[in-house]
């Protein structure tokens, strides 16, 4: 693989796919504050598009990210600086290559994220952008080092250090996540699953939702951990969305509903509009509705977004791929 010619901007583009948790079991907190999970992830067609532009003029010791622009329907509130996980992801690849292969003349780069995934919504949008940025930086800087890939185990490790959901958004498909969600085992899932996603105009903080669950459990509320994924796994093998719908479960849901009681109405409205079942996605507040088909999913989106003020919806399907450079 060769790097682009000097002084010639070159654009690399990647898709960053969102995810839904079909099942999310959450244990008591560990010593490090994280919770042991039994998470059945599914990647969704709904994706952000991340581009990395190689601005040319490679120099040793001077490479940097010139800037980050965020566009698209969910751009509002997304940081356009080093606090964005995608920015950090690019730097981690650069640091890894420097440490393992030594100094090299590298170009300045610019990042752009087109956000179609609701933010702070429990859809792993930030993690997916970081996963895409890891792959883009690997492709761009790898070219200068003359290497095709740093290898999936290294990408996974760099991803896990960025966030618990990053390894899954690198992998995609349908997978069981254990540990803090970063230890993945691909699962068999027949067929295509149609989802209606209803995002809220106010986000929820993931740490706050986990904390709320701990608090509720201390008071004997919030429910026991559901760590057994055998039933949902069988349902996924059957490929029958009606069966999978019976096993949608999220241990974080009582905590998310306690912080956002209004989500109950959204969950009820989705089922009334014809969804097979509805669930808060991850730490919420996005609600995910499994539907019998694409048309039913579109119908749920149009009915619920009219009925519940302050919501935006999208129909999508899974499983999709992990972050991929186009
Ligand atoms: O890993 P990530 O940065 O995405 O996690 C965000 C926060 O969510 C953590 O700081 C923690 O409060 C909570 N979390 C958790 N247990 C997990 C994953 C996340 O408590 N397994």
Furnish the topology, listing elements before pairings.
Elements: E1 10-29, E2 35-54, E3 65-71, H1 85-101, E4 109-114, H2 125-145, H3 152-162, H4 166-171, E5 174-178, E6 183-186, E7 193-200, H5 206-218, H6 230-238, H7 241-245, E8 249-250, H8 253-259, H9 263-272, E9 277-280, E10 287-291, H10 294-307, E11 311-318, E12 324-325
Parallel strand pairs: 1-8, 3-4
Antiparallel strand pairs: 1-2, 1-12, 2-4, 2-5, 5-6, 7-10, 7-11, 9-10
Bound molecules: cytidine-5'-monophosphate (C5P).
Structural write-up:
With 326 residues, the protein is an alpha+beta fold. It folds into two domains: 11-187, Ribosomal Protein S5, domain 2 (2-Layer Sandwich); 193-318, GHMP kinase, C-terminal domain (Alpha-Beta Plaits). Helix content is 35%, strand content 28%. The strands form two sheets. Strands 1, 2, 3, 4, 5, 6, 8 and 12 form an eight-stranded mixed sheet that branches. Strand 9 (277-280) and strand 10 (287-291) form a beta hairpin. Helix 2 packs across helix 3 (152-162) and helix 5 (206-218) crosses helix 8 (253-259). The radius of gyration is 20 Å and the shape is globular. The chain binds cytidine-5'-monophosphate. Residues 34-35, 37, 163-165, 180-181, 206-207, 210 line the site of cytidine-5'-monophosphate. Cytidine-5'-monophosphate binds at residues 34-35, 37, 163-165, 180-181, 206-207, 210.
């Amino acid at each position: 693989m060769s790097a682009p010619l000097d002084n010639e901007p070159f654009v690399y583009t990647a898709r960053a796919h969102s995810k839904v948790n079909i099942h999310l079991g959450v244990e008591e907190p560990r010593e490090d504050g994280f919770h042991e999970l039994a998470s059945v992830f599914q990647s969704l067609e709904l994706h952000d598009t991340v581009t990395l532009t190689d601005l040319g003029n490679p120099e040793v010791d001077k490479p940097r990210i010139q800037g980050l622009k965020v566009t698209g329907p969910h751009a509002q509130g997304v940081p356009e600086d080093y606090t964005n996980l995608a920015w950090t992801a690019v730097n981690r690849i650069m640091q890894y290559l420097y440490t393992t292969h030594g100094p090299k003349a590298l170009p300045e780069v610019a990042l752009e994220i087109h956000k179609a995934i609701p933010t702070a919504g429990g859809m792993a949008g930030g993690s997916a952008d970081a996963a895409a940025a890891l792959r883009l930086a690997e492709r761009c800087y790898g070219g200068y080092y003359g290497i095709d890939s740093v290898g999936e185990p290294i990408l996974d490790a760099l991803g896990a250090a960025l966030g618990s959901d990053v390894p899954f958004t690198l992998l995609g498909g349908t997978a069981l996540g254990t540990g803090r969600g970063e230890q993945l085992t691909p699962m068999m899932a027949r067929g295509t699953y149609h989802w209606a996603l209803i995002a809220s105009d106010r986000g929820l903080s993931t740490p706050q939702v986990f904390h709320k669950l701990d608090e509720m459990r201390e008071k004997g509320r919030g429910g026991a951990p559901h760590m057994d994924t055998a039933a949902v796994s069988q349902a996924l093998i059957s490929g029958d969305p009606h069966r999978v719908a019976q096993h949608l479960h999220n241990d974080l849901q009582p905590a998310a509903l306690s912080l956002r009681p209004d989500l109950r109405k959204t969950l009820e409205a989705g089922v009334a509009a014809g969804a097979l079942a509805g669930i808060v996605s991850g730490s919420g507040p996005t609600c995910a509705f499994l539907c019998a088909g694409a048309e039913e999913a579109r119908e749920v989106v149009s009915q619920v977004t009219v009925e519940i003020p302050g919501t935006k919806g999208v129909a999508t399907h899974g499983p999709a791929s992990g972050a991929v450079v186009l």
